[in-house]
Amino acid sequence: MGKLGSQVVVAVVTMFMAVALQAKPPAEARADARTHRLREGVQDGWEPSVRARIDALVERNRGNPDAYAVFDFDYTTAIGDLSYACMWYLLERFEVKVDDFRALIAKDLTPEHMKDVDEICALAAKLKPHAGQLLADWPEWQEFVGRYWKLYRKLFDEMGEYRAYLWRTRLFTGYTPAELRKLAKDAIAYTLKMGGMRKVPYAPTEKRGLAFPQEMKDLFHELRKAGIAVYIVSGSFQETLLVATGPEFGFDVAPSNVFGADLKLDASGRYVAEPVEGCVKSGRKHEFIRKHIAPRHHGADPVLTGGDSTGDYTMLTDFSGLQMALVFHRKWREPTMWELALSGGNVAVQGRDECRGCFIPVHMCISP
Length: 368
Fold this sequence. Notes:
Layout: H1 3-23, H2 26-39, H3 48-61, E1 68-71, H4 73-77, H5 82-92, H6 101-106, H7 114-127, H8 139-159, H9 161-168, H10 177-192, E2 198-199, E3 207-208, H11 214-225, E4 229-237, H12 238-244, E5 258-261, E6 263-265, E7 271-275, H13 285-292, E8 304-307, H14 313-317, E9 324-328, H15 335-341, E10 347-353, E11 358-360
Parallel strand pairs: 1-4, 1-8, 4-5, 8-9, 9-10
Antiparallel strand pairs: 2-3, 6-7, 10-11
């Protein structure tokens, strides 16, 4: 075949590929595009051995109605923390729904914390008349948010992760579920533009940012296409998770397959600072899966679970029928996660670059 003929063939093949991709739903087109990129030698961020094991798992379970996968959301499905993203966005505009901010944050704290509370509230009083505006460049706001997160970290060290978590989620008090969904939608769209995680100079104990890796969106699509159900089990709030995992941001997980934490509602349908019993709790996700998900699949264990921290440890280790525990690499402080990542067997470790908000091969980041 002459040079001209070759060019014509290439052009025709390219045209048909473009038409084929356009004719398919967006998620299918992305998955096919990923396959095409790999065939052309262009690598995505998957660790190749992990990707190969996932492909084998998908083929092994294709068409099995009792096969399902369960993923954490924060730092697993996403890079970053969803509730953090919503709280940062809320604080940046001081869109607090309660009139008495001091009563909101001081409840159940000890006298030793009152100096911190008074300093935070004095700054909050200056910001309140400007609620709804973008306040991030104001020196008063930067001092306010720095002190707020400093107190949170102090409570984290003194009271433990769960009680500190309940303290910071008081910011959602007074919101309706619909208002929280709107907050989540706006916060996600705003924070995704950052392109990854970043240190915050005026709140040095914290990082801010959010990324939704394309590899995870493609993975969810591939699992569902093979008949493997996809579930989210996370400590983030249910309403915010439903927004983040819906079609608008590319994950398109069925709402009935998304499980998170929740707060009680008062008589007017607004959140109060009391957790709903029976919701997802960090460290006990294996129990939640057995109670609420396994019965949908005749009591079967998940074939694949994905997580990143000790809060996910039990669902990564506690199922005898689990075929793969997909661990997303972080710079863990917990020895148990290092031991799990290095344990082999059904454990696979995928790396991410949190600053850039993308996947990277795990061999680039596995050392403690």
